[in-house]
Every structure is written in C-alpha cells, then in structure tokens.
Amino acid sequence: MTTPTTAAGIGALTLRPVDPLKDAVLLHSWVTHPKSAFWMMQDAKLVDVERAYMEIAADEHHHAYVGLHDGVPAFLMEKYDPAHRELVGLYEPEPGDVGMHFLVAPTDRPLHGFTRAVITAVMTELFADPATARVVVEPDVDNKAVHALNAAVGFVPAREIQKPEKKALLSFCTREQFQKAVSA
C-alpha cells in the first residue's frame, strides 16, 4: 500500500507485490484451504499456484499483492483491468474501471472486524490512484458473505453474469459510493 492503513482495534495493513516463487507455499496453503472454496483452487498443486502467480506477475493487466497485518502475511489482493482480463465481453467497461479480488487467509483465530478492515484497506488503496473511477467485482452468486462485505463498502449489484467457471454477481463501486459507505 502506498500508505499503511490502520484500522481501530485491528492494526496496520499494508501490501507488497507477490513474489511467485517465494510466496507459492504460503499462497498454496491459503487458496487450497476449505474456507477458500470460492477462490476455485481447491485441488491446485504447489506448482499450479506458482505457475498461476508467475502468469499474473508477467501480465501488464493483472497484479497480485500479499497483504500484511502488522507485517505478517494475512491476505491476498489482485487487481486487474476488466477491459483486458476476467470480464472481456461480459460488460461494457468504462474508463477508470479496475477489477478486484481479495482473499483473507484462513485462520483458527479470527479477529473480529478483520475482513471488513481488509476490504476497506483494499478499496482505499485502489482509489488512491486518481485514475480509478470505479471498482468492479464478480463474486460467485452463492458467496453471500462477500456480497454483504461488498455492500458494506459501497458496492451495488448490477446483474448476474455467466463466466466460464461460475455464475457471478457483477457489482460496481464508485469512489463516491465507497466514501459514503465508509463514512456512514
């Protein structure tokens, strides 16, 4: 993150780029965990995760970051250009659209409010770029928990779309919607 985000009672949240080789074991443990079913990598082998994040690292339209909680890896964030990745042909992108995915690392010791702090920090980071006008997400229609989190930071569902791997709920959040949601 350009500036660490500090959430009351949570601590400091920062981002650093994923290093596909050094982070593969960590990311593999996260994305294959049963609590990460909606990430759709349950059966991935370590080499699959390494390869997937090497492809992202080489892609000018897709970027991955490890999120740190007080300096310790705790979440994953991806941002992408929906005019070139993920949503090509599924909606009409507008200038300033940025796609986003996030995953909070599975834990046996959840911290109350942590996931909401993470999505708020991720959105703050995305909107720190003045070129970002709107964030676009496409979670699985059955992922009710993430729909509630998305609504809490200002996302408005547009419609269901059929992606090759899932039926998704296309949702958008403008800078103004985000600011209104987090200041309420």
Automatic annotation (TrEMBL):
All residue ranges annotated as the Acyltransferase MbtK/IucB-like conserved domain in the record: 16-63
* Any Gene Ontology biological process: siderophore biosynthetic process
Q: Which InterPro entries match?
A: Acyl_CoA_acyltransferase (IPR016181), Acyltransferase_MbtK/IucB-like (IPR019432)
Pathway(s) per entry:
Siderophore biosynthesis; mycobactin biosynthesis
Whose protein is this, by species? Streptomyces mutabilis
Q: Give the protein name, as stated in the record.
A: Lysine N-acyltransferase MbtK
Keywords from the named record: Transferase
Q: What SMART domains does the entry give?
A: AlcB
- Known SUPFAM superfamilies for this protein? Acyl-CoA N-acyltransferases (Nat)
Molecular function terms, GO-annotated: N-acyltransferase activity
- What is the annotated role of this protein in its UniProt record? Acyltransferase required for the direct transfer of medium- to long-chain fatty acyl moieties from a carrier protein (MbtL) on to the epsilon-amino group of lysine residue in the mycobactin core.
What would be one Pfam family of this protein?
A: Acetyltransf_8
